[in-house]
């Protein structure tokens, strides 16, 4: 039998002697009282874009959904297996989060795969290809844009993907209702992994600017 990765065991040892000691009481009360995060973040699975790290969040502070390219599918109550929609349902209906942040990031492999017209599916299931199909109309327009460089196309689609996810969030009746009544706010953000810069989407224009921090 393969042994459990030693890097993880070492990390766990550090956690128990460091952060856990500092936050023992917090963990204990979170266990007894349950979690009540007020922010839900949808981020990419990419190992470089962990919301808890970027927003310096402790246990119980963020309810996080991660998938390839931080995407939200449209509301489709079709009986299929919708992992992202299930987590959204829990965050909105049970935790009653007040803010939802869709956070994309630079050099996203999922976005790169969507733009790459030459690559073959990674497996018979072509799960990534099908998943990135959520962005197909925008992807096709960007792919055919000759005046943009590959890097510009990549950044543009990363940001369009965030707006697309926000639009799809609003296709969920509960989310739309809560937003309209002022009980839930939707936000977009884009993290530049090469510089550490966080860009925040202007809700009105859809443009991204760097906030004062
Ligand atoms: Zn990514």
How do the strands and helices of this protein lay out in sequence?
Blueprint: H1 6-17, H2 19-33, E1 39-44, H3 51-54, E2 62-67, H4 83-94, E3 99-105, H5 109-115, H6 127-132, H7 136-143, H8 150-169, H9 173-180, E4 185-192, E5 197-201, E6 208-209
Parallel strand pairs: 1-2, 1-3, 3-4
Antiparallel strand pairs: 4-5, 5-6
Helix pairs in contact: 7-8
Zinc ion (ZN) binds at residues 44, 46, 69, 105, 108-110.
Description:
43% of the residues lie in helices and 16% in strands. It is α/β, with parallel strands linked by helices and 213 residues long. It folds into two domains: 1-33, no CATH class; 35-209, Carbonic anhydrase (Beta-carbonic Anhydrase, Chain A). It is globular and about 55 Å long. The relative contact order is 0.13. The mean pLDDT is 95. It binds zinc ion (ZN). The site of zinc ion has 7 residues, from helix 5.
Give a quick set of tags describing it.
single chain, 213 residues, alpha/beta, Beta-carbonic Anhydrase, Chain A, six-stranded mixed sheet, 9 helices, 16% strand, binds zinc ion, Carbonic_anhydrase, EC 4.2.1.1, Beta_CA_cladeB
Short description:
Helices cover 43% and strands 16% of the residues.
CATH topology term of the largest domain = Beta-carbonic Anhydrase, Chain A
Please count the beta strands (DSSP E, at least 2 residues each).
Answer: 6
Alpha plus pi helix count: 9
Q: Strand order of the main beta sheet, please?
A: 2-1-3-4-5-6
The name of the CATH superfamily of the largest domain reads Carbonic anhydrase
Bound molecules: zinc ion
Strand percent estimate: 15-25%
The mean pLDDT is: 95
Instruction: List the helices and strands in order.
Output: HHEHEHEHHHHHEEE
What's the Cα radius of gyration? Answer: 19 Å
Structural class: alpha/beta
Helicity, in percent? 40-55%
Binding site for Zn(2+): 44, 46, 105, 108
Catalytic activity: hydrogencarbonate + H(+) = CO2 + H2O
Organism: Rhizobium tubonense
Cofactor: Zn(2+)
